[in-house]
Structures are given as C-alpha cells and as structure tokens.
Amino acid sequence: MSPKVLLIDPVRMLPSLLLPLVGVLFVGGFSPRSYGWAAFGVAGTVVFAIIRWFTFTYEIVGDRLETKRSLISRSVRTIPLERIRGVDVSTPPMHRLLGLAVLKIDTGASGGDEEAELDGVTLEEAERLKSVLLRRAGRVDATEAHVPDATVSTPQERPIFAVPRKWLLYGPLSGAYLLTPFALAGGAIGLVFQWGDNLGFGRRAAWTLGEWLWEHPYLLLAFVLLLVLAMPFVGGLMYAVFNWDFVLKRRDGYLVAERGLINRRSVSLESQRVRGYEIVDALVERWAGVVRVWAIVTGLGDSQTRGQLLPDVPRDVAVQVTGEAIGPYRAALRPHPPVARNRRLFRAVFPWLLLAALSGLALWATGITAWWLLVPSLILAGAGVPLGLDRYASLGHGYDGVRLAVRSGSLRRSQAVIERRAVVGWRLRQTWFQRRAGVLTLIAGVGAGKGGYSALDVSVAQGAEFPAEVTPEWLAPFLAQPPAD
Q: Does residue 410 lie in a domain region?
C-alpha cells in the first residue's frame, strides 16, 4: 500500500478509541498521568498502523492475485483471476485529499471473507490494477507471471448516459432517503444513552428529559413535525451526496457506473454476466413518471448497491438507456385473469372492514364507541379500493422472443426483464386460496439476481403455456401429443 495511508489509519481508529480514552481521562481526574496514558494509547495506534502497513503486500502471480499479511501469523489469500466478477474503486474524503483509493475485488462469493480489499493504493495504481484484473479475468494467461505498466493499454471507454444534476430533485421521491431525519434522531438518542455517563450528564438525565417531553406532548409533537418537514430536504441532500454526477459508461466489455460526491465510487459489471435488468418505482415515483434501474447479474454480491444502473430518471430515459446498455424489451405485457383483481381488492379492503366490524360489535356489546379505531378502519378500507385496482393493473408478464418480463407490486412496483438464456427452471406454486380461485404463481428460476422472478396469479392455462412458449424444448416431452392416425 502507499505509505500515505498511514495518515488515514490512525484517524479511522480514533472513533473506536474515543470511549476508552475518555474513560481514562475521567478515571484519572484529568491528571498529567491520565494524559500520558491517553497519549500512549494514541501512539500505540500509530505503531499498530505502521506494522500493519509494513506487513501487508499484494501481487499478481500468473493467473491469480495473492494478498499476504504477516502481522502475527502469516496469512496468504489467493483469488483466481477467472473468479473475479467486478472491481470497484472508491475514494472516501480523506483518501481523495491524499490521492488514494480503495479497490475492492468482487468474486461473487456470498460472504465478504472471500473478497479482497486494497485500502490505500494510489489512484493511478487503482486504475492500473482495475484494468489488469478485469482484462486478465476475461482472458487468463497462465504463462505470464507479471504484467508491466507498459503492456496495459488505455481502456476503450464509451459513455452511455450521464444523469443531469437537475434530476437530483427527484431524490425526495425515493422513500428510503426520506427517513434520514428520523434515523439521525434515533442515532443521536442512542449515543446519548450509550455515552451519557462518560460525557458527564448520565443516563438518568436523559430519562428525566424524556419524561419531561412526555409530560409536554405539544413539544414532542412539534419535534416530530420538525422531523417530518425536514424529510424532503435532508432526504434530497443525502440522495444528492450518494448519486452526484451519476455516469453510466461501457469500458472494455464492462458496464461501469460512477457516482458520489463525498465518496466517489466506480462499480464495474461484466457485460457477459448481465442477464437483464429490473425497473422499480414507488407510488410517488410512478405519479412523477420516474423509475430506478438495477442490473440482474450472475454472481454479484451486494447487488442492491453494486448493481444499480440508474437512480431516479424519467421512465422513457430508463427504457432507452437499458435498451442500449443491455437490450430492449419489445412486447406488451399480458394481463392476468379478472379473478386476480378480485383477490387484490379483497386483501386490500377486507382486513379494514373486519376491524371496523369488530369495533361496531364492541359498540353493540358495551355501548362504547371506539371512534379512534372505527373511523381510521373505514378510511383505510376506502383507500384499499384504488390500491387493489392499481395492484391488479401492475400485474403482467410477456415474452418478445429474446427476453421475458414479469411485473407486480403497487407501493413498490417492479418489472424484471430477463434474457431467455438466463432461465434455468420453472416453478409453479399454488396456495389453497389460489386453488379455490383457479390461479397460480409462476416463478422463472434464474441463476442471477434474486434467483427467481414471479408472475403472480396467472391462470392455469397461462401457467402451462408461458413456459412452453419460452422454453419449448424443455416441456415438449411432457406435453400430451395427439394420437397418430
């Protein structure tokens, strides 16, 4: 690693040392001896960082990457280049100031212990290693023991799409970021209860403050309203930080997505392993006409983060970009039978009507009207009608001869477009209620992404005809043949 990383490691270790150091100072009464012990702890951290840097090395040997660590016991990790699925380069703030980067190698393993991370290489070395590893992963030369700098040609790069900065205004439409103020408030409360005693005011003071707020509910309500009002602003800010200057490009057989303001991250996905894409939109995003896109890739770890192809962009742009980057889907989705609509209406309305009926029964039995339960139940039952209709309208499946698609959901609608070659099996599932209704769930087994994508509540005829259309050679031996003349 670059020796500059020694300026970063001690700083990163300080948060874990903060609590012990504060404890030492409090126990020692802030005496010169306590300051001495605290300084000794900081110095020990620096020495540990130096030893760890000095004893860690990496090397490309033939058709494998080796990382060696010999801090206490010698450890050698070997990664065959043919198993490398992607190489990510990120530049956290301190790394960027020093011209360093973090290079993470994804091998498609389920756990992080099987991946290698080079934390503290220079930007030039990170780009060189990325080019070498990705090229040699695709074409391993077992006779070549070393690839010098001069043999690494400039990668061929072609931009596909760059998200305009004005589209960052779509950020508050993404529900996950809207909860940021509540997450920050919860984290602050947790720190108060965890470190309150060490910071001098104690947990009892925190409990007293909480009881006082509970006795003054208008202040508590004002605090909650303040967090609600802050949701679009803080959520939009966090969205912009993570998706700043989002660029999708093609480089030497890889799809490369770059994004981030504070921590700039570059994720590479091997095009040969991309099997399709998933277009997702929440209810508010759908009203605004924007969607998010993830790639469906074989052997990809942390796919929800690493597989993102596009943040919130207009739907027509997403269709155009995915068509160019992966391949278009050119067929209409087929509707599901009307009984599927009835099932969604029933599930969206019946639970709230049942709750309202129970509150009415309580009124008849006791004479006490639970308005706080009856009124919300009736409102939610009424809201369930358009929700159920929208859930039915979102159902669909189709096949254009090259790719198949399945779509479902309302509050979070998802349409997966999958290449036919990615399908490795079919599964037909039918609950007792589905058997009564004459529908079933058809699951396309895929060796990528989530492993399976479901067409919900299709008719029995559709459940038999769709697999026969997509993979006729699989089902031909099992289909009834007309008797010979």
A: no
Amino acid (one-letter) located at 155: P
pLDDT per position as a tens digit, 60-111: 888 888 888 877 777 888 888 888 877 889 998 889 889 999 998 877 654 4
Please indicate, yes or no, whether residues 170 and 150 belong to a single structural domain of this protein.
no
SS3 390: helix
Q: Give domain status of residue 190, yes or no.
A: yes
Out of 194, 223, 243, pick the residue that ends a domain: 243
Give the whole-angstrom CA distance, residue 120 versus residue 57: 11
Contact predicate 436/336, CB 8 Å: no
Nearest in space to 255 (alpha carbons), one of 160, 165, 320:
160
- Residue-range definition of the domain harbouring residue 29: 1-54
Does 141 reside within a domain? yes
Residue in the structure block whose two tokens are 């998010």? 292
Q: Which residues of 207-234 are buried (b: 16+ CB within 10 A; e: fewer)?
A: eeeeeeeeeeeeeeeeeeeebeebbbeb
* Overall pTM > 0.90: no
The β-bridge partners of 408 are 414
Considering 19, 38, 54, which residue would you say is the last residue of a domain? Answer: 54
Distance CA 337, CA 457 (A): 8
Q: How many domains does the chain have?
A: 4
d(CA 194, CA 197): 8
Task: Judge contact between 264 and 96, C-beta under 8 A.
Answer: yes
470: which strand partners? Answer: none
Q: 234 CB contacts (<8 Å, ≥6 apart)? A: 180, 181, 184
140 shares its domain with 177: no
Residue 385 belongs to some domain of the structure = yes
